[in-house]
Amino acid sequence: MTDSVDFKETVKQQADIVRIVGDYVKLKKAGAQNYSGLCPFHNEKTPSFSVHATRQFYHCFGCGLSGDVFSFVQKIENITFPEAVRAVAQKLGIALSKVNFSSPAEAKEAKLRTVLLQLHERACAFFQEYLRRPEGAHAREYLAGRGLNEEIIKAFRIGYAPDSGFLLRDRLKEEYPEEALRESGLFSWKNSFQLSATSSQGLQLPRSASNDIVEQAKPEASSQKPEAAVQAIYSKFRNRVMFPISNEAGRVIAFTGRTLSTDEKAGPKYLNSPETAIYSKSRVLFNLDQAKESIRKLDYAILVEGQMDCISVFAAGFHNVIASSGTAFTELQARLLGRLTKNVVVNFDPDTAGAKATERTLGLLVEEEFQVKVLTLEAGFDPDLFIRRKGKDAYAGALKNSQKYFDYLIERALFQFPVRSAVGKVKAVNYLLPHIQRVPSRIVRDELAREMAQKLGIDSSVLRQELKHAAANRSTASVKTLAEVQITDAERILIRALASATEMQISEVHLSARDEAEEEFDPARQAQFVLKSESLHHGLATESLIEVLLGSWSETMHVTDLPLPEGDRNLLASILMKEDEELSAERIDGAVRGLRRIQLRRKLERVQRELQATRGQGTSQVQALLEEKVRLKRALMDASLADEGPAAKPA
């Protein structure tokens, strides 16, 4: 056994999958050993995702995914398996060992992510250092003017990118190769010969980088041919206040830089990192790493637009605040938030652009089954300015008086389309109908339509007809459920019994004859004996699954480690997740009798088919088949009369 396998098993034995999954999914107790929640891997309205505390695996009855703690972290973090092992080890505080990768490409990808995470931490420390230096005086003045004290600056690791194209590069190139600098998203580059050759043609480079690059480029430009030209890389962020963007674990993965220049060549007011191997803006919520515990505790989140709004609201004591990061709110962000809570207050800017962003966000949240309220501040006030001018108590009062999302939409409709005329009413209805269509519940849609008709002064029956017509055209994404194999209760019981042997070997709780004078009942041993001696599982849909469970495995093998195709593994997971009755000797006996009846019926059906094929031949073979038919019917009748166990009917 290799060191990496030993390390993986050490981590798995110490990991509590309920706690690890609970960091990503809001779980509730759902039985003696099960916890349930909304599946993070597909869109669903009611919880179908389960975690088994004893057997340490998860299974979703909606999309069919199942696995252990490593496969969960691997999928949800979008990382390789070795990285998932290391991530779980870090959560448990286990010292990391060297992990083997399955291919050079996988190793290279994992190494790049590791290097980029380290590089971003170094860059963040660099920006923090320069904020404290004399060069950062202007940035400190800006932050003070925005009401941020040292404690908040430190909590959000805010920094300053100096007005130079090469200071950050020179600091990082001592530790990291140029390839990593290019992949980080922190740098830009130009060919040195291009700089000298095109400067007379009006090539416009960023001001702070231009002089540095041209000075460095001159020697190369005069001594090298164009095809051998050197590419000079320079900092993308210059003379900007730097706001780090962290992943859910608190690791810096990107930056937003707010310019301090008034020069028209300074670039956009806010500059964001491009997407990299560690950063995908549609999958990240700013401040989620610091806000998630408060969101869980309070069971709601405050959603704002920008980083400064988020920081100001957080500094005022509302620690359950998050922001979309450099992008409009996305479905992936909604699902990310949905792991923690299904209640949200949306507080975007009250201007026209903010109102449109609110409407788009409301639509997404409603489709994802959120309970949504809208906080609309006075005209001209974003959350940051409102708190600085009016104080945190005023913001708390406004938060308390947040509107239900549809009340907000109706007000918007009345403001945009006066309903004094028929044309205005039609426009208002057309504006609101798409929002109603997104509501999954028909009862809620009907209630909203009644309220809308009352406030718009429209006949409710006419509006219901319009809603019915819209609903007919409504297109919603339906989840493809796992089509489970039709198996009998008897098969389920015996599969559970066989799997209990695996679990017993893992936990080493079974007793040998030397430990006890009287051997205790072992459901796995009883099931193994009957199935091996009578081959009752042959010809069943679960034959291949049962064969694997009957085979041999190592003492450390987990149920999810069994060599099974995906369909069989998911089927096994769904069976084990419903262990609602004890595996008694009587239940095992009943299941065995059930399989015997199934085999008798199958044999009888085969004999009847053969008789049908030989009808009218009058041979000795037909006579033998008739006798076999009588024998099988008698045996089946006797088995049914003697049966006192559970019926082997399809589940």
Molecular structure report:
- This protein is α+β, with helices and mostly antiparallel strands and 651 residues long.
- The protein contains 27 helices and 17 strands.
- Helix 1 (3-14) packs across helix 4 (81-92), helix 10 crosses helix 11 (207-223) and helix 22 (489-507) packs parallel to helix 24 (543-550).
- The radius of gyration is 33 Å and the shape is globular.
Q: Please report which band the strand proportion falls in: under 5%, 5-15%, 15-25%, 25-35%, 35-45% or over 45%.
A: 5-15%
Which structural class matches the secondary elements? alpha+beta
How many helices in DSSP terms?
27
Count the strands?
Answer: 17
Distance between the termini: 41 Å
Low-confidence stretches: 193-230, 474-485, 504-518, 644-651
**Rg, nearest Å:** 33 Å
Oligomeric form of this entry?
Answer: single chain
| Percent of residues in helices | 40-55%
Task: For the largest sheet, list the strands in their spatial order.
Answer: 12-14-13-15-16-17
Instruction: Please state the average pLDDT score.
Output: 78
General form: globular
Main pleated-sheet profile = 6 strands, mixed
Give a topology summary:
Layout: H1 3-14, H2 17-22, E1 28-29, E2 34-37, E3 49-52, E4 57-60, E5 66-67, H3 69-77, H4 81-92, H5 104-132, H6 137-145, H7 150-155, E6 159-161, H8 167-172, H9 178-183, E7 187-191, H10 192-198, H11 207-223, E8 231-235, E9 240-246, E10 252-259, E11 270-272, E12 285-286, H12 288-298, E13 301-304, H13 307-315, E14 321-324, H14 331-338, E15 343-346, H15 352-367, E16 371-374, H16 383-390, H17 392-400, E17 403-404, H18 405-416, H19 422-437, H20 442-456, H21 460-472, H22 489-507, H23 523-534, H24 543-550, H25 566-576, H26 585-613, H27 620-642
Parallel strand pairs: 13-14, 13-15, 15-16
Antiparallel strand pairs: 1-2, 2-3, 3-4, 4-5, 6-9, 7-8, 9-10, 10-11, 12-14, 16-17
Helix pairs in contact: 1-4, 3-4, 10-11, 13-16, 16-17, 18-19, 19-20, 19-21, 20-21, 22-23, 22-24, 22-26, 26-27
